[in-house]
Specification:
Layout: E1 2-3, E2 28-35, E3 38-39, E4 43-46, H1 57-61, E5 64-66, E6 69-75, E7 78-82, H2 84-97, H3 105-118, E8 130-139, E9 152-161, E10 172-175, H4 194-198, H5 201-209, E11 214-215, E12 217-218, E13 226-228, E14 233-238, E15 241-245, H6 255-266, E16 271-274, H7 278-286, E17 290-297, E18 301-310, E19 313-316, H8 324-337, E20 348-352
Parallel strand pairs: 1-4, 10-11, 10-18, 15-16
Antiparallel strand pairs: 2-3, 2-4, 2-9, 5-8, 6-7, 6-8, 7-20, 8-9, 12-13, 14-15, 14-17, 17-18, 18-19
Bound molecules: pyridoxal-5'-phosphate (PLP).
């Protein structure tokens, strides 16, 4: 792997006590090209602007996918990545759906390890803080024909981020919408495709204008079954059971979701991955069996939901705090990620640094 180190590190300019998500990037990045029918060797270069032609394919047709993960500080010699195999598998599946050639697991893992070793001082040391890692692939060919490109670029940039909840959990409020859908069966909803987000900002803005944090997406066909939140998957604790919408084309297969399901089963909680109608959630609330609602995703890990609005009706849970099950889930997942708890599942991927 070719590595070009920066001559002027920017780390001294970082205020690690006041980190803003996704604004500041570490000194180095991964850059790997696909051309002549093959992925080339990954390179590590100083983080810098890249140049491209206005005809660059991805800008016109959105052939682009991404991942999101975090690197966690354990001690001065150890940084943890989390469920790397799953992230590689998911970017491969996303790539397949977007007609992007798959990259090897070795290139994915080796280059990430090297980047983390090189920029390990950028991993914030406080519990809850982390280095956000953003791998992405885009069609880089200089060609505006509407067919899959023949040249691509894989890059990874990283950004130090603060704990998602600085002063305790802050339950989110969600609303359904009649006017828009996120994903349809046969579409790209289960791929982490850049374009899925492009279409979601308008409905999100409208929801925010009405005072909600985010949209709770329902199925596109009947506008009846809960799907996810667009940046996180959703869980309902009803009558002792944990219920989450099943995957199947329109729901993004979250890796935090997978961890939540595995841990719940470990704790002998009944887990149901199935269709769940929004009416069932309201019904459970009415008859007193709705215990907790929370989202799951890499950024917040577990995000308690305090309110859901649907067609003029509202469910309100305790909006000041997180439920005991969600709290235990949060403590366990973060405990494993930061190396404070044992990892019997082989989820953490330690990188030896320093
Ligand atoms: C990334 C993402 C999630 C959460 O996935 P994690 O792997 O848990 O971070 C959920 N929904 C959508 C649409 C996403 O893009």
């Amino acid at each position: 792997m070719e590595i070009t180190k920066t001559q002027n590190s920017r780390i001294s300019s970082v205020d690690f006590d006041n980190l803003e998500f996704g604004r500041m990037f570490s000194d180095h990045m991964i850059d790997m090209s696909y051309k002549n029918g093959a992925w080339q060797d990954p390179q590590i270069t100083p983080y810098a602007p890249i140049s491209f032609h206005p005809s660059m394919h991805a800008l016109h047709y959105g052939q682009a996918v991404f991942e999101g993960m975090k690197a966690y500080y354990v001690d001065d010699e150890t940084i943890h990545l989390f469920r790397l195999d799953d992230h590689h598998e998911r970017i491969s599946n996303s790539s397949e759906r977007l007609c992007i050639p798959k990259m090897s697991k070795d290139a994915f893992v080796d280059s990430l390890e090297e980047l983390i070793r090189l920029d390990h001082e950028w991993v914030p040391k406080k519990f809850g803080h982390a280095l956000y890692v953003r791998p992405f692939i885009f069609a880089s060919e200089e060609y505006i024909a509407a067919r899959a490109a023949k040249e691509y670029r894989y890059m990874v940039i990283t950004s130090p981020v603060a704990a998602y909840y600085k002063e305790g959990f802050n339950p989110v409020s969600l609303t359904t919408t009649d006017d828009y859908v996120r994903a349809v069966k046969g579409g790209t909803g289960e791929a982490k495709a850049a374009g899925n987000y492009g279409g979601s900002f308008l409905p999100a803005q409208k929801a925010q204008k009405e005072g909600y944090t985010q949209v709770l997406w329902l199925d596109a066909k009947e506008n009846k079954y809960v799907e996810e939140v667009g940046t996180m998957n959703i869980f309902f604790k009803i009558d002792g059971k944990l219920i989450t919408p099943k995957l199947g084309g329109t729901v993004l297969p979250g890796i935090t979701r997978r961890s939540v399901i595995a841990l719940a089963k470990e704790w002998n909680v009944d887990v149901e991955e199935r269709r769940i109608a929004i009416d069932e959630v309201f019904e459970a609330h009415k008859n007193g069996t709705l215990e907790e609602i929370f989202g799951s995703g890499t950024a917040a890990v577990i995000s308690p939901v305090g309110l859901i609005h649907h067609k003029g009706n509202t469910i309100e849970l305790d909006r000041e705090k997180i439920g005991p099950f969600a709290q235990k889930m949060y403590d366990t997942i973060t405990g494993i990620q930061y190396g404070k708890l044992d990892d019997p599942y082989g989820w953490v991927h330690p990188v030896k640094v320093g």
